[in-house]
Amino acid sequence: MSVNKGKVITDFDVNLLLKRGVAEILIEDEMVELLRSGKKLRLKEGFDPSSPDIHLGHMVALKKLRQFQELGHQVILIVGDWTAQIGDPSGISVTRPMLSQEQVQANAETYMKQFFKIVDKSRAEVRWQSEWYGNFTLSNVIQLTSKFTVAQMLAREDFSNRYNAGQPITITELLYPLLQAYDSVAVRADVEFGGTDQKFNLLVGRELQSTAGQNPQQVFLVPILTGTDGTMKMSKSLGNYIGVTELPNEIYGKAMSIPDSLILEYFELLTDYSEKELEVFRQEIKDETTNPMILKKRLARDIVSQLYDQTAANEAEENFAKLVQNREIPDEIPEYHISISELTTKKDGKDSINISKLLVLTKLVKSRSEASRLIAQDAVSINGENISGNIALVKSGSIIRVGKRRFAKIVNSDNLK
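Predicted structure:
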């Protein structure tokens, strides 16, 4: 078989690629024809390195890319080092700060390490926008902008909403869809992947390719994964995410925390269980013949094994059973040397310390406001006893627990002086 061709595709492959974990394909008939042609397709996936972290929401599209790779197709990863300095306004109501080239570079390197935990690096090509935009002149920019009207740009929902609300839209933001679209021209993409919130940008790419005399790319949209809270889309800023580089125990524990209503969505979008197996799960949930926790354990184990290996998944499951289900204390707990005297205050004639400050010092929480919220939710305990206020007695050797999986052992550094 020629290296320039993809593998012969079967009806099963078409169904797997184009139906499961897919929100919309434009144009689906053309996509099927391309797949059946045997052509080795160039699959474009761009990313904005304004943030260095990938979570399971990104994994939905990445798993789809991996499926295409296994049929012989080529992934083209676009590092948006130019557009990241503008910031895609999708889903936001204010402009984003521009990043320095150094910030973009650092974020991109971190991102790619995570990207290739899922996508096969040997069958992927990495391209930086600066390859073509580095030589762009003002004439090139004017020529690019002449391809589209202001009315076309305002057809994008977030632009339209902001314009109607009297909120500012900068010229640089209007350039973002055009620059992303030109990427498709530069790499001659056959298919571009993205979430449903990227539909407008990907369609602009399709149109720009046509004006450049290229075959218009197919637009492959994947669903937006619901976050662990069960209501909002998965997002790091919302705190409802599972990061692909988090430790196995953390990934497993977060997966176990999702509401039962998300079990089937996560199985469908994040695992390779067959449609027949998913239908069994669906019926078991409907008939209430299986405890949802059993299915969640299976889901959590599968996700960890994909991102690490089966051994890590088994250990994470054992750890969850020990710490969460049996509420045991782990064998190894991080120790923190803290000067108790510096945190001590008098309460009812007894020496006590500020717990919210202690939780920040031990890195169990990121802020004192988060600590106060968790204390109010009875999620903080000392030596197995929940605390109800921000002041409590802590001694050297005390074990602090936050939630189900975060522990710290306090060692009084005053005794070490």
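Summary: The CA atoms of residues 123 and 230 lie 35 Å apart.
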